Amino acid sequence: MRNIKLVIAYDGTDFGGWQRQNNAPTIQGEIERRLAIMMAAPVHLLGAGRTDAGVHARGMVANFHTVKTISCEGLRKGLNAMLPRSIRILSAEDAPDGFHARFSARAKTYVYSLFTGPVLLPAERLYVCHVPYALRADLVKDCLSIITGTHDFASFELSGSRDTARVGGRGAIRTILAADLHVAGDGHYRFSITGDGFLRQMVRILVGTILEVGKGRLAVDDFQQILRARDRSQAGPPAPAHGLSLQEIYY
Amino acid sequence: MRNIKLVIAYDGTDFGGWQRQNNAPTIQGEIERRLAIMMAAPVHLLGAGRTDAGVHARGMVANFHTVKTISCEGLRKGLNAMLPRSIRILSAEDAPDGFHARFSARAKTYVYSLFTGPVLLPAERLYVCHVPYALRADLVKDCLSIITGTHDFASFELSGSRDTARVGGRGAIRTILAADLHVAGDGHYRFSITGDGFLRQMVRILVGTILEVGKGRLAVDDFQQILRARDRSQAGPPAPAHGLSLQEIYY
């Protein structure tokens, strides 16, 4: 039995997120449907994680098992020929038997893009969040220092989200390996956050709350308190989905 | 009577081009409709030129006359609040009485973006033309040298296009002030072509024909002959609309 690893980029604008569902087109559903045609059999794609509706990806990873002998390059080209151009298979390769896109992942990087100038260009509107306020980059960086390291991120988890992420006993404890703010100087900013795992909506709620600090509505000390409180109701609103992209997954 | 100048950016993907028409949404039509609401009177917007269906703009210019006393900044913000986010008014200002977006223009710059790698990222698919072939940048640059200066570009004009551009007697003679190819090194290329005026589809037909040279299907000498022939049937197909953007207009 072969175990094939796919690296996938997508524009999440027109999809109900990664995970297959009945009432909206999803990335997983679109790829599985084409894979089933190419493999002449139903295929179950194991994704490294879910992305919410509207979130993009530059490096989602998924794997599936098959007995078919098609070449990986033929598979990649065939899928890309059938998929909408908003979903692209960047690579396909045979992976070791034990490889599992989700359980083998050691870390992921998410990128969140925003623009603080008065007018967001049309070509950026689907990929960059427009925050037309002065942003204190120094305070944002203070918050990013605070979250770096191992913490209980319960304040930054979608409330009511199921507990599947907690199997294994680590609860809401995650380790942020790196958290940076790139300042382009023309009003464009890019958060880059790498962690060993993320709770549901964690990056969006972190960015949404840190932006409250960057706009001066919360103090850095308040942010520190929110992290310590382990209480979702104390954090800010999630930043909009369309500014977020799953950049890379490390194995 | 005030004469107001607008600088406009748009994503042409979902529009039937700049010019107002009855059977498709257009940039001019969308802006005029909102202007009429704000001014409580019909408004005729004079555009610097037309762009084809699917072509984008970063710096289209248009002007209109009004007796209303609204501030330019109020006008800009009001229009942006009403327009879809695929159309943005970058600036609005009072212009001299004699200013005419089309007749006062001294030069325009168009940019054409393309990518030669195997997989075009989803976020670029609406703005970058995918040309998955090796491209000889040196030969492309030779062609760009050939078109620089004053020439009769009849070979690169949409056949059957009306002769309005020829009023004034210069026929298909235009002056290309600068024509460059920017090579990013990762498979991305950007043509930048500045001229005192352009015939219909001229940039797309030029790029389409030059790409034939860049792919090795035509020689540079062939390209020189095509320019001299002043015969549309000798040139190549127009490059796809979505790679083209009207970058800037100079007054």
Describe the protein.
Two copies of one chain form a homodimer. Chain A is of the alpha+beta class and 251 residues long. Chain A is built from five helices and ten strands; from the N terminus they run E-H-E-E-H-E-E-E-H-E-E-E-H-H-E. In chain A, strands 1, 2, 3, 4, 5, 6, 7, 8, 9 and 10 form a ten-stranded mixed sheet that branches.
Task: Name a few traits of the molecule.
homodimer, 251 residues, alpha+beta, Alpha-Beta Plaits, 2 domains, 10-stranded mixed β-sheet, 10 strands
Layout of SSEs?
Two copies of one chain form a homodimer.
Chain A: E1 2-10, H1 27-39, E2 46-47, E3 56-66, H2 72-82, E4 87-94, E5 107-115, E6 129-130, H3 137-147, E7 149-152, E8 173-183, E9 188-195, H4 202-214, H5 220-229, E10 244-250
Parallel strand pairs in A: 3-10, 5-6
Antiparallel strand pairs in A: 1-3, 1-4, 2-3, 5-9, 5-10, 7-8, 8-9
Helix pairs in contact in A: 1-2, 3-4, 3-5
CATH architectural group of the largest domain in chain A: 2-Layer Sandwich
Order of helical and strand elements of chain A: EHEEHEEEHEEEHHE
Rounded mean pLDDT of chain A is 95
At the first level of CATH, what is the class of the largest domain in chain A?
Alpha Beta
What percentage of residues of chain A falls in helices of 4 or more residues?
10-25%
Largest sheet of chain A: 10 strands, mixed
- 3D shape of chain A: globular
